[in-house]
Amino acid sequence: MAPRGDIGFMPAVSSREAVVSLPDFLSAEECDRLIAYGETAGMAPGRLTGGVMVSGIRSASTLWLDDDTLPWLGDRLIEGLALLNRRWFDFALMGFDEGFQLLRYDGTAEGGDFYDWHIDIGRQGLNASRKLSLVLQLSDPADYEGGCLEVNADGTPAAQVRARGTLTAFPSYVLHRVTPVTAGRRYSLAAWAHGPAFR
To answer: What total of structural domains would you count in the chain?
Structure first.
């Protein structure tokens, strides 16, 4: 089978088919290391593509990481990406062309940080070559309320696995969101695998 993505392939899939999760991808200790690094390095308000801030679409704190910052993380994500793509997606991929984004969502009773419905693929720049989106759950689900990653590939929002250390992947053209965190604090990490543009 030829790799998908450079041959006019953008399949219609259901929310259940669109998402794959690898449990225990990181240990609790590794999750703690990432969270501690983010808090020590300092996180800034999250922005949309092009550096735009739109409070009605996204509210979260972010920190960009790269292979030089945390080499072990890049190695692990490459291993996870290779496994996911080989077994489930079979997309034509070239690797991670941008850094990884550490995310913190703070909760309030009125409805805290969130990221409304969006897709990760764009029309220009690095966003145009995003093929596979990866979300790594760093927080223990007992540490926060709300903050659910939902994927909507077919008009039916589907809540994703919240277990700590789980790596979740879905095509970058699939609609998804993080619901408002209503208490506590949720940490995650996002990464995007790039390749020839879907046509």
So the answer is: 1
| Sign of the CA dihedral with 127 first, then 130, 132, and 138 last | negative
Residue 188 lies in a domain: yes
**pLDDT recorded at residue 6:** 37
Cβ neighbour number for residue 33 with a 10 Å cutoff = 16
**Structural domain includes residue 4:** no
pTM value?
0.88
- What DSSP element (H or E) covers 178? strand 175-178
Are the beta carbons of 67 and 74 closer than 8 angstroms?
A: yes
- Domain boundaries, position 36: 15-44+60-91+99-194
Q: Give the amino acid at 171.
A: P
Given 3-state DSSP classes, what are the helix, strand and coil percentages for the chain, each rounded to the nearest 5?
A: 25, 35, 40
pLDDT digits (tens, 9 = 90+) for 127-171: 889 999 999 999 999 999 999 999 998 889 999 999 999 999 999
DSSP three-state, residue 115: strand
Rounded to a whole number, what is the largest CA-CA distance in the chain?
50
Helix spans in the chain (H) = 15-18, 28-41, 71-84
CA separation for the pair 147, 24 (Å, rounded): 20
CATH label of the domain that carries residue 167: 2.60.120.620
pLDDT band at residue 51 under the 50/70/90 scheme: low
